[in-house]
Amino acid sequence: MPVPHMSPDQGFPSRIADAVAGARHNLVLTADGDLYGWGWNEDSPLLPFDATAEVPSWENNIVCEPTLVPLPDSNASSENDTVALTKIACSNGRSFGITTEGRLVVAGSNEFGCLALDPQLGGLTVKPRFEREFSQIKKPYDCANGVQLHPGQGLTQSGKVVDVQATALATFVTVQVEE
């Protein structure tokens, strides 16, 4: 059973299967399939922002301790059936994972198209913008609001995602194609 936060005294609730460090955030995948993250969350690579809030929730910009990251539903027939991840990666305000079915999950910054999405994010939920009207510092790109299934990668019957690597300016996705 996942816990909302890691216990500093007892550690994670199960063995660590994978751990990755991005530029300003970190992810840990446990052997039970739970994903924990902490660090800078301005682009929403960890936790989604509340899109209905009238006042921006700036406290979500920093996740101070390892926190359970909500995973999307697997689109299976049963309700509350979240995806199970086998691999994770992160870098520069974005996070990635590969599901057991070979689907890609993405979160965070789509700067330079690093989520393999068009500028409109391919229909994914977009992080709400909280820039002030008079601000001259406006991001020219949108961010995926929390971890979501990629709308295209791993959807075909003939291929599945087998690896993902993230660097400062690029993302490499390896797709295995069935003949």
Strand order of the largest sheet: 1-2-3-4
Head-to-tail CA distance between termini: 39 Å
H/E series, N to C?
EEEEEEEEEE
Helix content: under 10%
Percentage of β-strand residues: 35-45%
CATH superfamily: Regulator of chromosome condensation 1/beta-lactamase-inhibitor protein II
Query: In the CATH scheme, what's the topology name?
Result: Methylamine Dehydrogenase, Chain H
List keywords for this structure.
179 residues, 10 strands, four-stranded antiparallel beta sheet, Methylamine Dehydrogenase, Chain H, globular, mainly beta
Mind sketching the topology for me?
Layout: E1 16-21, E2 25-30, E3 35-40, E4 62-68, E5 85-91, E6 94-99, E7 104-109, E8 143-149, E9 159-166, E10 171-177
Antiparallel strand pairs: 1-2, 2-3, 3-4, 5-6, 6-7, 7-8, 9-10
Q: Quick gist of this model?
A:
The protein is an all-beta fold and 179 residues long. It contains no helices and ten strands.
